[in-house]
Amino acid sequence: MLPSKKPIDELETGPVKRTGTSSAAKSGAVTVVGPDGVPLAPVAGNTFSGLNKGDVLSLDFVWTDHERRPYNEYLVDVKVEDAASGKTLFRDGAMPLDFNLIQKATGVTIDGDLNDWQDAYPIHLRYKTQNASGYHDPDNIEATAYAKWEDDGLLLALTVGDNIHKQSENAANLWKNDSVQISLDPLNNREAPYGPDDVEWGFGLTDTGTLLTNIFSSSLPNPNGDISGKTPFAAVRDEKTKRTFYELKIPSAYVGHLQPSIGGHIGLNVAVNDADLQNGRDDFIQWTKGTADSKNTSLYDSFIFIDDVPPAAPDETAPSLRIVAPESVTLLAESGVDSALLRLDGTEVASPHEVSPLSLMPGEHRLEAEAADRAGNRSSTSATLTVTFGWEDLPALLKYAYEQGWIDGHDILQSLLAKVNGEEPNIRPLLQEIQALSGKKLSEEFASKLQELLSLLQP
After folding, report:
1. What would the pLDDT profile of 209-223 be if each residue is shown by its tens digit?
2. What is the pLDDT of residues 230-252, one digit of tens each?
3. Which fold has domain 1-97?
4. Tens digits of per-residue pLDDT, 193-209?
5. Which homologous superfamily is 321-387 in?
6. Could you report how far apart the first and last alpha carbons of the chain are, in Å?
7. Is 329 in contact with 350 (CB distance < 8 Å)?
8. Which of 23, 91, 112, 349 gets the highest tally of CB atoms within 10 A of its CB?
9. Cβ–Cβ contacts within 10 Å for residue 25, how many?
């Protein structure tokens, strides 16, 4: 698949490019299965015919998987079948997606640990067309490279698969053994051979642990030659996994035209050299031609400087609700709530809702609350509010009624209290007085509710 110039969440199509290798013309079909296991639909058909040796086939497929993965690693299954025989002409069940993107660096420490590169976009050095030998041997040499940028320079990281790590050369000759070469075309003007703005750097980890850095090509006033220890560089060899990790920075102070900025472009190439037991380099692999085999920036891909901030994760957390009582019933919800509803015995009420004497009769009352946030997440809760009333509560209720103006006259209050203050309930004379005063010295509504309450106290 051709490298993408868009972040994964903006990717719309995945172009597949194949070059004919058979002397006989071929016809067939291309199928692509995305990282999520879902087949990708072709934009305008997936069949081809009359493909001769050297012919280039290019087909677009609709990209549907936009879920971000660590290190932006997305593996697709690409298969090419012959139309006549049904035989598989080509199959790569784990073809990684490459990106011509250089991510803005945040929090990167040059220490050989690539955990802080998980948001970077990769290029993979794994195809036989990239290998000097013309063969793909993942045990012998294979690499994944990442690039990031800061205002004052370019950062790169590589993880290199190599069954034997060997580096016994000096800085000037580090390319002859296991090492990395980085070529830059800062002006992206695609010159051949190298122009005044172009540079080529090399990095190596010796068998004794020494770190080597050498500038192989650069024009004044940029420096040249051995600069080991002068710029940020770390390398770690893991013999258990047979991998070597490189992490480095090329400062703008060393490359006059290197001025990264969002939306800018730069020509970039990465080469990895390999030497096993013999003296000198016996193999290399590079992203494109033009570094380890020649000095030709016109062959380089153009990379884009981006500041790709991942979209915020969808809010799937329902709002938190809490009902507070009893003096008043209040619905408490976290910030971000778009709407909230409180019901008391099935009737919508405001929050807070005051629970005053006589506003609820004794017994159980159902409280229900619902809320929704701006992301559409909903939650609900409920509670039971129990109201109790006894003979001992009557004096306080009567005094409250007097304060509210429901009892007209202090003498009336005292007369009612006299019938309540006894140890034994004396409900009958109290009811008779309430009935006689209703609508006169007692408000009709209060008198009615008071009679209802007293009926509940009767044995």
Report:
1. 999 999 999 999 999
2. 999 999 999 999 999 999 999 99
3. Immunoglobulin-like (2.60.40)
4. 999 999 999 999 999 99
5. Immunoglobulins (2.60.40.10)
6. 88
7. no
8. 112
9. 12
Locate 184 and state its tokens.
Answer: 């830059």
Tokens for 400? 């409250």
Domain extents in the chain: 1-97, 98-311, 321-387, 391-457
Say whether pLDDT at 184 is over 60.
yes
**Separation of alpha carbons 184 and 173, rounded Å:** 20
Q: Which CATH architecture has domain 98-311?
A: Sandwich (2.60)
